[in-house]
Amino acid sequence: MSLTAVQVKNAKPGPRPYKETDERGMYLLVQTSGSKLWRLNYRFGGKSKTLALGAYPDVSLAAAREKRDEARRLLTSGIDPSQAKRAEKAAVRTSTANSFEVVAREWLAKQNLADSTRTKVLWLFESLTFPWIGTRPIKDITAPELLAVLRRVEARGKLHTAQGIKQRCGQVFRYAVATGRAERDPSGDLRGALATPKTRHRASITDPTKIGPLLRAIDGYQGSIVTACALKLAPLLFVRPGELRHAEWSEFDLASAEWRIPAAKMKMRQTHIVPLSMQGIAVLKELNPLTGSSRYVFPSIRSHRDPMSENTVLAALRRMGYSGEEMSGHGFRSMASTRLHEMGWPHAAIERQLAHAERNKVSAAYNYAEHLPERRKMMQAWADYLDVLRDNRNVVEGNFGRVA
């Protein structure tokens, strides 16, 4: 006699486990604890075996019979249903272990990125990518599926962000191919599928007649002393804004007149030396009594354990009356690069001081001390040149150029 749904529901535990038999080898095993488990007895290869079909009430009588019938079909095809079940579980584990999120996190952990870059990439993944394709087996993700993720970002007008996600996802897919977990990179099929963002030009003042007024405005800044000193050092050192605000006192050697930025903080992940001019040292000595006991040269106003906010210098420029089209935090780098080239300093020395990547792979071996004697002369000449512009004196740029 086959079981009924009422019999299954009303089966009570006894002093010992017992079976309520259904049809074709299936039965309900009632445990002393009260749990009810579906089982199927069958023979394969001359041996008696038992297959678990699930627990009641999660698996109803009808659902258990469907599982039994599927197992019987496998037996008819010469397949052991227990082995098939184990293979299915293994496939699920493999898919989970090789999901896009797992592979992406593994890839990111192996990348030699600056902390700020790593944080940005992680945000792109966690906020804009993982929620939609994170659990998907990476080998199964198609170009249209990836495009749907990018379209959500593009629809919000974030064209640069969409392109950035596509680039990073492509790197993850290529890593998956290299490690045998995917066969191809679907991001390559999306060339031309996204709107092309307009090239962003960071605003910068490079006209000498306008640099002087900017420097005088910085000298007259009425805000925080810490912010004022950051503004004064920005044109003298022309490092990236993130490198400036994360500067630590332990990195400076005023006696040797240099700031040595650790590789972990640099975009190119290489140690970088910034020679200090007399003017730069003077600003640091002015600031030291105020923040010298802190880790950071420019600590946050909320906590000296954290660096200055990334928007502090930018907000100060706006407060001084400079719009986003006129000047940016990165603009001091363009200012120095443009004027130093005009002053006749060697391109190689300028590029090394800007810590730009070497595009020629043959000569890409980075030597952070390369051109250092010349860079020291250049940084002092640059500071002297800025003094002349600040004082609104007549300037002959050649007088501050390279001395043979």
UniProtKB/TrEMBL annotation:
InterPro entries: CB, DNA_brk_join_enz, Integrase-like_cat_sf, Integrase_catalytic, Integrase_DNA-bd_sf, Integrase_DNA_bind_dom, Integrase_recombinase_N, Phage_int_M. Residues 1-20 are annotated as: Disordered. The keyword DNA-binding applies. One of its GO terms (biological process) is DNA integration. Residues 98-177 form the Core-binding (CB) domain. PROSITE patterns: CB, TYR_RECOMBINASE. One of its GO terms (molecular function) is DNA binding. Residues 201-384 form the Tyr recombinase domain. SUPFAM superfamilies: DNA breaking-rejoining enzymes (SSF56349). It holds the Pfam family Phage_integrase. Keywords: DNA integration, DNA recombination, DNA-binding. CDD domains: INT_P4_C. Belongs to the 'phage' integrase family. This is Integrase. It comes from Stenotrophobium rhamnosiphilum.
